[in-house]
Each structure stands twice: as C-alpha cells, then as structure tokens.
Amino acid sequence: MTDAQPGGWSGGGTMAARTVTLTDLLRVPLHRIRLVAAVSVLGLAAALGYVLLVPGAVTASAVVAVRPVVTDAFTPSGAAADRAVNMNVESGIATGTDVISRLADAGVRDPRDVRDALEVEVPAGGQILRFTYKADSADSAVHGANLAAQSYLEVRRAMYERQREEMLRSYDESIEKVAAQQAALQRRVANARDGARDAAVAELSGVNNQLTQLNSARTEIAAVDVNPGWVTRSAERALVSSAGRGSLYVAAGVLGGVLFGIVLAFAWESMDRRIRSVDDGRDATGLPLLGTVRGRGLRGRRKPVDADIRYVAMAIAERVREPARVALLTTREDQTVLTAGLAVALAATGRDVYVADDSGRLERLRATVMTDRGRLPAAVNPGRPTIPKPRPDGSGSVDDVTQQITVRRPSPHPGAARVATDPEATMMLPPGAARGATDPEATMMLPRMGGGPASGKSPVAEQADEVTVGAGGVRFGTWRQRAAQGLVLFNAPPAEADERGVAAARQGTAVVVVEQDRTRQDDLRRLAERLRAAGVAPLGFVLTRSGRG
C-alpha cells in the first residue's frame, strides 16, 4: 500500500493544560438531563406528598394584658411599664411546667409536643403576652391558645393568692400576740394602784396603737386584687391562619431535587466518562481531528449533514494515496451510516470505492448508499439526469437532447480481455449461438455464474454489485474479497468485541469514529493503546454529534 502515514502520535508528548470553562461544567448536567429531571421529579413528588398527606399546621393567637398587683390600684406604678412587672419572669411562668401540664392534660398530648406547639411572645417595653399555638386543626389551635392564656392567668393568680395568704397569716400571728399583750395590760391596769396604773395605761395605749396598725395593714392586704391580668383578645376560628408553606415546600423539593440530581450527574460522570467535545476526543486519543459530523432530525431518526461528511472525505483523501485501505473503527458504536456517506462522497469525485463489511451489514450499507446518492445534485448523480426543458413550439434539436444524456463510464474490467484458466469456470455454447459468429463451429466462452474463489469476482457479478455515484462507483463485499485497486473502506465491527478492525488497520490505515455523548473515554483510550501497540498510525478521528446541525 502507498498510504500517506501521518507523522507519529501526539498523545505521547506533554499536552498543554486546558482551561475549564463554565460551559464545560454545564455540559455534564445538560447531557445527563434525564437523570437530573428524574431526581427533580422525585423531589417534587416527595414535597407534594408531604404537603397533601401531612396535615398543615394551623396557628391561633390569644393576647393577655399583664397587670401589676399593688395595694392601691389607683397609684401610678412608674414611668416605665417594665419596672412594674418583670416580663421575663412572666414569660417564663407562661411556658412553665404548670401551664404545659394543664395543656397536656386537657388535650391528651405529650408535654413535649405541647411545648413545641406553644410559643409566647413578649413585645419590647410592653406588658403584653401573645400566646401562639399550632395544631392540626383550627378547633385544636383555638382551644390550645385560649387554654394556654387562661392557664397562665390561673397559675399566676394562684401564686399571688399563696403570697397573700402567707402575709395574712403573718399579720394574724402578730395581731394575736399584740392582742394577748393588750389583755394582759388591761388586767394589769385594773389591779394596779395609782402610780403603777398611769404607767400601765401608757403602755396599754401603745399596744392599742400597734394593734390598730396591724389590723389596718391586714385589711389592706386582704383587700388587694390579685388578678394578674386579662385576656384582651381570645383566639377565634375567624382569626386562625394556616402555615402557608405548601408552595415553599414544593419549591424546596424541586430545588433540592435539581441540586441533588446535578451532584448525582457529576458523580455518575466521574465513574462513566463520555466524550463530550473535540478536546476530550483529542486528549483521549492523541490524534488530530478530521472533522465533525452533525446530525439533523428528531431523536432516533437523525441523519448526518452531507456537507460535514464531504469535508471529512476531503480530509481523508488528502492523507491517503490510492490504492489505499482505510478501516473505520469504533469502540462500541455502529458507524454504518458514516461509512456509507464517506463512500458516496469519495466516489462522487471519481474514485472507485470498495466498501467491505464482515458483520452482516452489507444490505444496510447498500440501502444507505442509494439513499445518499439520491441526495446528490443532479449534475453529479447519474441517477437524477436533468430533463431538458421543452420548447414552446414542441420542437427541439438533436444537440439539445444529446447534451443532457449522461454517458456511463465503461467498466474497468472488460469481459473479452480475460482468459479463463479454470476449465470449470466457463461453459460451452453450441455452434452458432454466439451472435455475430462467422465460423459455424465457433464457440463462445462465458464466465461462470457460480461461486468462484473468494478473491476474484467475475466481471458480471462486479458490474451487477456496483453502484454508480457521480464519476466513480461504490462496490460492496467482504474484507476477504476486497479489491486490489482503488480505495477500500472497511466498516469494522466494534473494537471492544472484535479485533478484525485493528487487524485490517495494520494492512493500511485507520480512522477512529467517536460518537459524542456515547463513546466512553476509557474505551477510546483502550482503542488508542491497542492501535499504538499494533503499530497502526491512524489518520485521525471523526466526531459525530447527535445534536441538531
């Protein structure tokens, strides 16, 4: 072979570090969009399930005005209200054990749940307690808020009453002692003489004054209003407000699903790296880029762009000299469509292209070649001759007609120039059967239609299996039946399962076909190492893209 060998592999040297851009970071989740979308749907379903199945929290509020307990209700308590009542202490009492226990006993709930559901707010500089209670239903929330406010007032009143009782008992004890002294002094005054009586009377007067003061103080303590405050606003169903966080939960579920899906996409990409760009293919193979082939159409029915295939064909034709053998290699993918497109593009420029395949894809190759040939311009494709436009009067010259007739290229293997050496390869016709025979005893040797050696097809079979494309032609067959002249394209089987592609590349050269977003980097590196170990210097690699052209 006389293939033009490229100047060595560039993957073995030191390559310049490539800057990772934002596009490179977004490429992974975009190409793993199915995974990201699936995880996002799961997050949305979880959020919707929580919102619909778990009852939403309902909040009710009750407000209590706290008053200081004083002996004189009409005496000002001072300029600052917080000096009269320590609201921190009141807030602690409102959320204390006594209040929580009453709520738990009334609602038959666990005290920990009650403590989590009850919230007491104290406005700065005010004597107000706002009781907020959360429950599953509006009735439970209203009942809980009102019960919490009433329980606080009852607990605080009981505390004040205990303090008043202690003070009254202390006064009663003191009054009893002073009353006993008064009775003793009165007996002493009655039995005393004149001089001693004056002293006893004076002492009795002091005891009487003390007893009067104690009784007055006790009267004031007994008259103190121990009411700790009032409920200024009771909780009602009309004032109940729901949590209103359903939309927030749904948004959080979707956002969390997207973020988790992106993280999972990067984790999956780290374990299953794919070729995403030309730089990835160049880094994995160390080969030059021959071209990129885009795809048009819907997913699953996309067709390569003809112009891209022609550019790749020009790059291949620049690097090889005929006769040449080029093996199109892939790792796990099917490059049949690209092989047929390259065969049509190379044959349209006047080359004899032989397409070889050993994997049972010849019929598909032939059908694809016929389809691609139908898309060629009429000036190139003999299957679409240009019909002359008729004249208005219906007449036309012979020259106008002959100029539009496409002359078929003569066969490169004329049957009369070959002499058969195998007696079984020909059959005898009776005398005179040959048209135009001058000797009645003459016979004509016809090539045998049966199967002959694998390396030599008969001219009749070759002509029947050839598809004319432009100024050249495309023939089909196996690698064993390949032609010795022209350009041979081997539609090699996947290299991960079959080694015939690498073996065929040793007899000529190779073109590595990389499919974007499908070819794994590990498989591509392994194929490049196998080619390097086999002594094959490929022409380069072709990147096929599945996106719209």
Radius of gyration: 53 Å
Number of strands: 16
Any idea of the CATH topology of the largest domain? Rossmann fold
Widest sheet: strand order?
7-6-16-15-8-14-9-13-12
Helix/strand structural class: alpha/beta
Quaternary state of the chains: single chain
Transmembrane segments: 35-58, 248-268
Region (Disordered): 376-443
Protein name: Lipopolysaccharide biosynthesis protein
Organism: Micromonospora zingiberis
Would you write up a description of this structure?
Mean pLDDT is 77; it is low at 385-464. The chain folds into three domains: 22-55 and 244-271; 58-242; 276-377 and 465-548, Rossmann fold, CATH 3.40.50.300. The protein contains 17 helices and 16 strands. The longest helix has 54 residues, at 138-191. The chain is of the alpha/beta class. It has a nine-stranded mixed β-sheet with strand order 7-6-16-15-8-14-9-13-12, with helices on both faces. Strands 1, 2, 3, 4 and 5 form a five-stranded antiparallel β-sheet that branches. A two-stranded antiparallel ribbon has the order 10-11. Residues 376-443 are annotated as: Disordered.
Features:
15% strand, 3 domains, 549 residues, alpha/beta, 17 helices, rod-shaped, Rossmann fold, single chain
List the helices and strands and how they pair.
Blueprint: H1 22-31, H2 33-53, E1 58-66, H3 81-84, H4 87-94, H5 97-107, H6 111-117, E2 118-121, E3 128-135, H7 138-191, H8 194-222, E4 229-233, E5 241-242, H9 246-271, H10 278-285, E6 289-296, E7 303-304, H11 306-319, E8 324-329, H12 336-347, E9 352-356, H13 362-374, H14 398-402, E10 426-428, E11 445-447, H15 459-465, E12 467-469, E13 472-477, E14 487-491, H16 500-505, E15 509-515, H17 521-533, E16 540-548
Parallel strand pairs: 6-16, 8-14, 8-15, 9-13, 9-14, 15-16
Antiparallel strand pairs: 1-3, 1-4, 1-5, 2-3, 6-7, 10-11, 12-13
Helix pairs in contact: 1-2, 2-9, 5-7, 7-8, 10-17, 11-12, 12-13
